[in-house]
Design goal:
The protein is of the alpha+beta class. The protein has 3 domains: about 180 residues, no CATH class; about 100 residues, 2-Layer Sandwich (Beta-Lactamase); about 170 residues, Alpha-Beta Plaits (2-Layer Sandwich). Helix content is about 55%, strand content about 20%. It binds guanosine-5'-triphosphate. One of its GO terms (molecular function) is catalytic activity.
Length: about 575
């Protein structure tokens, strides 16, 4: 950049120098031309004054101008000679500042003819102007050029000298008519006998002004001035560059300060954000710690390997399960398996967590002492960066209390409040399950409708409470008289339904009914009373006596009615003719 600026400055300086130098030269040339014009006017004016004030005065006094004035007392040079003398004197007196002399192509003096190239070149151009107006004044234009003379530059200037004064014309014409002049001209092959008219070209004044000295002085001055100016400009430029560099440096340092400020501001902003983030993290960590503490206090937490081996348990796990931490670590969760859930339950759970999903559900576990407890579990698979499961985190809430309540509520909904036997709703479910199984396996099912005989009098005589206790006792005897897979439910009042699943033949049902009749008829000790009661039973068999619950109940009821009509304490199988 600096080199470029200096280069431009140098080129501009050189061009400026030559422009100034040429301008000065041109000015000098113009001045020289103007001076030549002035010198011409001065010379011709001096000649006119001389002709009028000197030559004419002497003529009036009886003397006058004469070419031979040197040998004639009282005579002076003619105006043309005066002009020539004036030129010669000027040349000497002005130390060759300029030279001028009258010239013409008719002049017989060798020094005043067309003696060099310039005069021979310029004279025809002056002569050409002479033809512009043969009878009147002519606006003469000088002819000039610059040329080299002996190694010096000079202005050559030629200005027309027209015939203005009649006395001059008369004198010149008379001079030309002289025989010796005619003779001289002929000998020199110059036109003789020329006669001049007013306004016509009489001769010319040649002026030579040397320029070299002035030009040398001017160029030297220009050089000095240029050097001074260029020095000042160069110094200014260097100063400007120095200042601009300093400014640039200052600007750069300002920019650096600005950048530094921005950086500091950003760092402060970052630090602020970091602080806020740290505060957020601390707050989140604090909240998380609180959550973890809360979870740890209230939840049963364990961590297991992908193959289900326990590697970490919390205190709550130990408290609820009854196992110590040492007993649990290294085991799998089968250690608390209660056997309540089918194997499909755990298969589904393992499938879910093995594919990376969270499994949630309620599990019934067993403590070390054998008690059941319910937990609401969520098992979260923990994955590494590659998505591979590395841990299972189990969080369980002990819901045994709620579960017991739910089970109790469910029990109440499905059991008779007085006897605890399944009620109609549960019987309905059992019916559906057993009938479906029997249909699949072509097995038979027996439905025994039981109605106590003469229960109302007990109620009426001993009170409702005794009646209730008797109903409870009857329920227990019926319950204890059947298999685990069979169902006895209270149908209402003193009526019971017994559902015998999968009987091999109807005799089995008959035998069981007889056994129950004998059981029921045994005396009861209730509130200090020994009571006796019997029952009437009707039996219907699936599938021959009915295809569904309604049909089977209806037909067993009808058969029971027949048993009751038969005196009670007996059992009747349903037969279609009972409808008659
Ligand atoms: N204590 C008590 N009595 C009930 C209950 N539910 C119904 N009963 C009574 O049981 C009796 C049943 O009536 P029935 O079966 O007609 O009377 P029964 O004397 O057994 O008549 P038979 O069956 O023809 O022998 C009614 O008196 C009901 O009030 C109950 O929950 N508790």
């Amino acid at each position: 950049m600096l080199t470029f600026v200096l280069g431009v400055f140098l080129c501009t300086s050189i061009v400026a120098y030559f422009v100034i130098r040429d301008t000065v030269r041109e000015t000098i040339e113009n001045q020289a031309v103007a001076f030549a014009e002035i010198a011409t006017v001065q010379a011709t004016t001096a000649r006119s004054v001389y002709a009028k004030e000197v030559a004419e005065k002497l003529r009036q006094d009886g003397f006058g101008p004469s070419v031979d004035y040197a040998h004639m007392k009282g005579y002076v040079p003619i105006p043309a000679q005066f002009l020539k003398m004036l030129g010669q004197a000027s040349n000497t007196n002005t130390s060759h500042l300029f030279q001028y002399k009258p010239v013409s192509k008719w002049n017989l003096d060798a020094g005043q003819g067309l003696g060099d190239d310039f005069l021979r070149w310029a004279w025809p151009q002056i002569e050409q102007q002479d033809k512009a107006n043969p009878d009147g004044p002519i606006a003469w234009k000088p002819i000039w050029r610059f040329e080299q003379q002996q190694g010096q530059r000079v202005l050559r200037y030629l200005s027309a000298d027209a015939a203005t004064q009649p006395s001059c014309i008369a004198c010149h014409n008379a001079y030309e008519s002289k025989p010796e002049i005619v003779e001289r001209r002929k000998s020199q092959h110059i036109q003789a006998g020329k006669q001049w008219h007013q306004y016509q070209l009489l001769g010319a004044i040649s002026i030579t002004i040397p320029l070299s000295k002035v030009e040398t002085l001017a160029v030297a001055r220009v050089q000095r001035t240029s050097i001074l100016i260029f020095g000042i400009l160069f110094a200014s430029l260097i100063l400007a560059i120095w200042f601009s560099r300093r400014l640039v440096k200052q600007e750069v340092s300002l920019q650096e300060v600005e950048r530094e400020l921005l950086r500091s501001e950003k760092e402060m902003q970052d630090a602020k954000e970091l602080l806020l983030a740290k505060q957020d993290v601390e707050r989140a960590f604090s909240e998380l710690s609180a959550y973890l503490q809360a979870i740890d206090q209230h939840a049963i937490v364990s961590v297991a390997t992908p193959d289900g081996r326990i590697i970490q348990v919390n205190q709550k796990f130990c408290e609820v399960s009854g196992y110590s931490e040492q007993e649990l670590i290294g085991q799998d969760h089968n250690i608390v398996n209660s056997g309540t859930h089918p194997s499909s339950f755990f298969s589904e759970m393992w499938q879910t967590i093995a594919r990376g999903d969270i499994w949630s559900g309620e599990i019934c576990n067993r403590t070390k002492s054998g008690a059941l407890y319910w937990v609401d579990s969520s098992i979260v698979p923990l994955k590494d960066q590659d998505g591979k499961i590395v841990r299972y985190i189990s969080i369980r809430l002990d819901i045994t209390g709620r579960k017991k309540t739910e089970l109790h509520m469910a029990h109440l909904a499905n059991h008779d409040a007085l006897t605890g036997l399944p009620n109609r709703y549960l019987l309905q479910d059992r019916f559906k399950a057993i009938l479906a199984r029997c249909r699949r396996s072509n097995m038979q099912t027996a439905v025994i409708f039981v109605d106590l005989d003469k229960f109302k009098p007990i109620n009426d005589t001993l009170g409702h409470k005794v009646g209730d206790l008797l109903l409870i006792e009857v329920s227990q005897r019926l319950r204890s008289g059947i298999r685990e897979v069979d169902t006895v439910s209270r149908h209402g009042g003193d009526e019971f339904i017994i559902l015998l699943a999968d009987i091999a033949n109807i005799e089995d049902a008959a035998m069981l009914a007889q056994k129950l009749l004998h059981s029921l008829i045994e005396p009861y000790q209730i509130m200090g009373h020994e009571l006796s009661i019997s029952a009437s039973m009707g039996i219907s068999i699936f599938p021959q006596d009915g295809d569904d619950m309604e049909g089977l109940l209806k037909h067993s009821d009808l058969a029971m009615y027949y048993a009751k009509r038969n005196g009670g304490n007996n059992c009747q199988f349903y037969t279609p003719d009972m409808h008659k």
